[in-house]
Amino acid sequence: MYHLLKGLHAHLTRKDEFSVIIIGLDNAGKTTLLEKIKSLYNNVPGLPPDKIGPTVGQNIGKITLPSTILQFWDLGGQRDIRTIWERYYDECHAVAYVVDADDRERLDEGWSVFDNVLSSPKILDVPLLLLANKQDSPSSLSVQEIRESYENWWQRRKAADRSQDDGDVQNGDREERMASLDVMGVSALEGTGIRDAVNWLFIRVQNSRRNTDAQSDL
Ligand SMILES: Nc1nc2c(ncn2[C@@H]2O[C@H](COP(=O)(O)OP(=O)(O)OP(=O)(O)O)[C@@H](O)[C@H]2O)c(=O)[nH]1
Ligand SMILES: [Mg+2]
């Protein structure tokens, strides 16, 4: 009887664990975001922004939500380090791509990297959230402007592809993904929008788990 109750208790209190990778160009604010998520959900202050340096490798943070643990992997965004991102694609359940909405000069660079992420086969079916960070800055692009910036970049890119007469095969997938892409505005520094973003991730990993469960029941 004890074992039965113990098993039942373990089953009822079981928490599923999901991994979320946080990627984007260097200086986008990924580590600041992770530290803010930790402060908001773990009731212990994360690293203050002035103690955060460029990430060489990864930072990890875990938060506990109802019946769920979200494990965040904040990966370094410098050009040479970006090659490690792919190693995490197999194991991740969601992707948060962070853009510095206040850095107009690097938007195109960011879109080109983002486009590579979007078209990676390993994460084609993984929930992906685009975060327009630094909304606290008055000169930041809004969510709508960020969307437009990406769409403009995409149109330019498509026109260039067309002139080289290739790329059409992949365009369908990408355009479908783009159309359903969710973009949220956040300020990692001030914490605005962070709870909405974490809720989005929480709901989406739960839903994709249900889909996977349903498929494995067939
Ligand atoms: N104004 C403003 N500045 C921010 C915000 N988030 C991050 N920053 C600043 O942006 C700079 C880079 O932040 P990091 O969190 O180190 O950026 P990162 O994306 O982790 O960079 P890498 O580790 O090199 O990939 C720091 O000076 C932060 O204080 C924000 O929401 N608003
Ligand atoms: Mg970092």
Automatic annotation (TrEMBL):
Gene3D superfamilies: P-loop containing nucleotide triphosphate hydrolases (3.40.50.300). GO terms for cellular component: Golgi apparatus. SMART domains: ARF, SAR. GTP binds at residues 24-31, 77, 133-136. Keywords: GTP-binding, Magnesium, Metal-binding, Nucleotide-binding. It comes from the Eukaryota. One of its GO terms (biological process) is intracellular protein transport. Mg(2+) binds at residues 31, 55. GO terms for molecular function: GTP binding; GTPase activity; metal ion binding. InterPro entries: P-loop_NTPase (IPR027417), Small_GTP-bd (IPR005225), Small_GTPase_ARF (IPR024156), Small_GTPase_ARF/SAR (IPR006689). Belongs to the small GTPase superfamily. Arf family. PANTHER family: ADP-RIBOSYLATION FACTOR-RELATED PROTEIN 1. This is P-loop containing nucleoside triphosphate hydrolase protein.
